[in-house]
């Protein structure tokens, strides 16, 4: 083969390789174009979906939405604005947002464009012109709008009809009032339930003085009949010897020596009944007492007696309350707190064969401490911060509302004191009521 023929063959082969390379590059470019086209279609679909989502959200908003540029020209509005103004978003496009507001609000809306450069306008009340020409009050917020480079490009106005806000507030206020009434009823029910548990103990407390008064009054009735007979004999002019005999027969001298103690005992019993009734009224009633000094020992003893005598399983109780210990507070409220604490301790120790209760009192500088300790299982550490929460209880359903300790905590605070829960190092729970000392 000649040299020229070889050169022509080499040039032909080189040309074919160049075309093949061009075709391969074209295939790669086309593949990239197809890939980019798919990505573009996916992003466009996602964009359309996001746009539909935004439009659906805007359409369902009850609040008015107005999007403006930096000059205050409307760029977008939602259905809520269309309903109030009677104008479509398309008709409002590129109009000044100020056209939507009544003359009385123009001074305020004029300042929106300047204020958004430095701050957000919160909850100013403006009047929007409704479809029938009447003003519709709105609680309006105005905030700045920025583009992707952080440049201020306009503002966003969101307004809620004030009437709707007022209705929502009134509904919230009514709900709060109902909730407060329900809570008061629950608290009162808990107090009455506690009072019901104490009825047996109180009945025993009342039975002793009432029986004493009842017996004394029968004796006084008999003495009165004998004295009447003796006085009748005196008025009838019975002679001295017969009168003396009748005096001995009727035991007038014994009556005269005994009648004073009978009257004193009757008065003491009546006073005891009166005190118990007053304690009951303080426990179950709503009357206000003054905060004043009082002796703690009688209040503690009465509270313990009421609960223990009504208990199915009576605990061994040890009282260590100095007789001279005095505190400043409301005696009825302190009595109620102690009743709740003792009742709670007895309930906790109900499964025990030998329940014990220790109640101590002492003065520490300007405070008086009354400690109620049971010998039950104690309080789990996780529950120590929750024992005073309303409706918190570890009792079975139907055996406790979880309001006793909550009420006691509030009563302690009401009179300037406090109530603290802890566990004893040797076992059992300890509740300490702290009051001001005299």
UniProtKB/TrEMBL annotation:
Residue stretches making up the PAS domain: 49-101
EC numbers for this chain:
2.7.13.3
Can you provide one Gene Ontology molecular function annotated for this UniProt record? Answer: phosphorelay sensor kinase activity
Q: Which Gene3D superfamilies match?
A: 1.10.287.130, Histidine kinase-like ATPase, C-terminal domain (3.30.565.10), PAS domain (3.30.450.20)
Write down the InterPro entries for this protein, in alphabetical order.
Answer: HATPase_C_sf (IPR036890), HATPase_dom (IPR003594), His_kinase_dom (IPR005467), HisK_dim/P_dom (IPR003661), HisK_dim/P_sf (IPR036097), PAS (IPR000014), PAS-assoc_C (IPR000700), PAS-like_dom_sf (IPR035965)
**In terms of domain of life, where is this protein from?**
Bacteria
Residue stretches making up the Histidine kinase domain: 201-438
Q: Which Pfam families match?
A: HATPase_c (PF02518), HisKA (PF00512), PAS (PF00989)
For the biological process aspect of GO, one term held by this record is: regulation of DNA-templated transcription
Q: Which UniProt keywords apply?
A: ATP-binding, Coiled coil, Kinase, Nucleotide-binding, Phosphoprotein, Transferase, Two-component regulatory system
Please write the reaction equations for the catalytic activity of this protein: ATP + protein L-histidine = ADP + protein N-phospho-L-histidine
What sort of enzyme, by top EC class, is this? Answer: transferase
Report the coiled-coil segments: 162-192
Where in this chain does the record put each PAC domain?
122-174
Q: What is this protein called?
A: histidine kinase
Organism, scientific name: Sedimenticola thiotaurini
């Amino acid at each position: 083969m000649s040299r020229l023929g070889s050169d022509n063959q080499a040039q032909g082969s080189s040309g074919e390789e160049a075309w093949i390379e061009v075709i391969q590059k074209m295939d790669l470019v086309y593949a990239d174009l197809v890939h980019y086209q798919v990505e573009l279609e996916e992003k466009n679909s996602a964009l359309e979906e996001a746009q539909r989502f935004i439009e659906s959200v805007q359409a369902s908003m009850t609040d008015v939405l107005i999007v403006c540029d930096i000059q205050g020209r409307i760029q977008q509005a939602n259905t809520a604005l269309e309903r109030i103004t009677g104008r479509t978003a398309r008709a409002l496009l590129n109009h000044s947002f100020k056209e939507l507001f009544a003359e009385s609000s123009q001074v305020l809306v004029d300042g929106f464009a300047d204020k958004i450069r430095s701050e957000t306008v919160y909850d100013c009340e403006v009047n929007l012109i409704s479809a029938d020409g009447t003003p519709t009050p709105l609680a309006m917020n105005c905030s700045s709008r920025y583009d992707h480079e952080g440049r201020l490009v306009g503002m966003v106005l969101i307004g809620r009809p004030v009437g709707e806000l007022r209705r929502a507030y009134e509904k919230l206020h009514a709900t709060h009032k109902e909730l407060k009434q329900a809570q008061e009823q629950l608290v009162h029910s808990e107090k009455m339930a506690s009072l019901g548990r104490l009825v047996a103990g109180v009945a025993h407390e009342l039975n002793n003085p009432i029986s004493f008064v009842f017996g004394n009054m029968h004796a006084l009735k008999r003495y009165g009949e004998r004295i009447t007979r003796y006085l009748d004999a005196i008025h009838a002019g019975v002679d001295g010897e017969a009168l003396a005999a009748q005096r001995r027969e009727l035991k007038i001298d014994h009556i005269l020596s005994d009648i004073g103690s009978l009257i004193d005992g009757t008065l003491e019993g009546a006073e005891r009944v009166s005190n118990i009734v007053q304690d009951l009224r303080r426990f179950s009633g709503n009357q206000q007492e003054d905060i004043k000094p009082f002796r703690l020992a009688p209040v503690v003893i009465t509270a313990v007696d009421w609960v223990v005598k009504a208990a199915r399983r009576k605990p061994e109780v040890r009282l260590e309350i100095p007789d001279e210990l005095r505190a400043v507070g409301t005696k009825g409220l302190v009595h109620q707190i102690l009743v709740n604490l003792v009742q709670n301790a007895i309930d906790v120790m109900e499964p025990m064969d030998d329940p014990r209760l220790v109640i101590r009192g002492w003065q520490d500088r300007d405070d008086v401490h009354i400690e109620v300790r049971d010998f039950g299982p104690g309080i789990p550490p996780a529950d120590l911060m929750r024992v005073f929460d309303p409706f918190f209880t570890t009792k079975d359903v139907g055996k406790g509302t979880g309001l006793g300790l909550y009420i006691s905590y509030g009563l302690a605070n009401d009179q300037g004191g406090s109530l603290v829960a802890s566990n004893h190092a040797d076992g059992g729970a300890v509740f300490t009521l702290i009051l001001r000392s005299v």
